[in-house]
Design a protein that fits this description.
By secondary structure, the chain is an alpha+beta fold. Helices cover 59% and strands 10% of the residues.
Length: 306
């Protein structure tokens, strides 16, 4: 019996060693995977910088920029590097989109469409690009089919553009007005474009658009005004308040991009309590807010009143 227990203990020890060894090996493999992903990410970052330069070059010499894109496509096709090879499809897609964009600007709509057709994907920004080309070609039914297939953040704006292109003023106004009413999308670049179109269409004898928005593939283009930096700072500030001991979560309930104010309404939950604050956008001053009676107090006033 004694020998049995000794054997059992030995097996347990060996099992633990195997488990620990397996866990260490798994962690090493995980770290190696992240290292490999980082290297691929760096190559993609390098390409994006190159693409930004190409867009900048195209502002003065679009035809030569297209030739440069052709050269890059050839190099990409022949690429054998371990990490660059993993982004070949991304590079090809971006360069073909660049060419389609340049050809569209040059009025070569059929050639632009041919570049878009190198990719099987026909939704999102690509669908908008197709629609833009077909409108210019006067093929409105085809354009409409692609507008209906956009399905992303610019779908409504492009639909409004389409209605303008076919002379349906009321349809365009209805869509632009719906965009205006949706405060949650104010941070998108197209929001102001929609407001401008709405204002123009409400004038006497407005001039309709004759084109649909063609989304750029320039990595430097800001699709929306992100306030991530502010939010990160706010999360840190409220979590470090003495009242946040036992913190379990932070939520932003309202913010300047939708409330047209200069503050964020932040709710902090702890194990035993819930606190509401206004954090001001420019100064990051924090005030306590009581949503029941709408009272707003400085932190000192609130703490003295407790």
């Amino acid at each position: 019996m004694k020998n049995f227990f000794l054997i059992l203990i030995s097996l347990i020890i060996l099992s633990c060693k195997d488990t620990n060894s397996s866990r260490v090996q798994e962690e090493k493999s995980h770290m190696k995977l992240h290292e490999e992903m980082d290297k691929v990410g760096k190559e993609l970052g390098k390409f994006n910088k190159q693409l930004v330069k190409l867009y900048s070059f195209s502002e003065k010499k679009p035809e030569k920029a297209i030739l440069s894109a052709d050269s890059l496509l050839l190099v990409n096709k022949q690429e054998k590097d371990k990490y660059k090879s993993q982004i070949k499809s991304n590079v090809a897609r971006s360069l073909h989109h660049f060419k389609a964009e340049m050809l569209y600007q040059l009025g070569k709509y059929r050639e632009s469409i041919a570049e878009l057709e190198t990719d099987d994907y026909k939704s999102g920004d690509i669908a908008a690009a197709y629609a833009a080309n077909y409108v210019k070609l006067g093929e409105y039914d085809k354009a409409k089919s692609f507008v209906d297939n956009i399905g992303n953040y610019i779908s409504d704006y492009c639909r409004g553009n389409y209605y303008e292109c076919i002379g349906e003023k009321s349809g365009a106004i209805k869509i632009y007005n719906s965009i205006k009413q949706d405060k949650s999308i104010k941070h998108y670049a197209y929001y102001e474009l929609a407001i401008n179109r709405l204002e123009d269409l409400q004038k006497n004898n407005p001039k309709f658009l004759d084109e649909i928005y063609f989304p750029t593939g320039n990595p430097n283009f800001e699709i929306c005004d992100s306030d991530n930096e502010n939010r990160t700072k706010i999360f840190d500030l409220v979590q470090n308040l003495p009242e946040s001991k036992g913190w379990t979560g932070t939520a932003i309930l309202d913010y300047p991009q939708i409330n047209d104010k200069d503050y964020y309404w932040v709710r902090v939950t702890t194990k035993n309590n819930e606190y509401n604050y206004y954090v001001y956008q420019n100064t990051f001053e924090i005030k306590f807010f009581n949503p029941k009676n709408k009272n707003l107090m400085t932190l000192n006033e609130w703490r003295r009143s407790k």
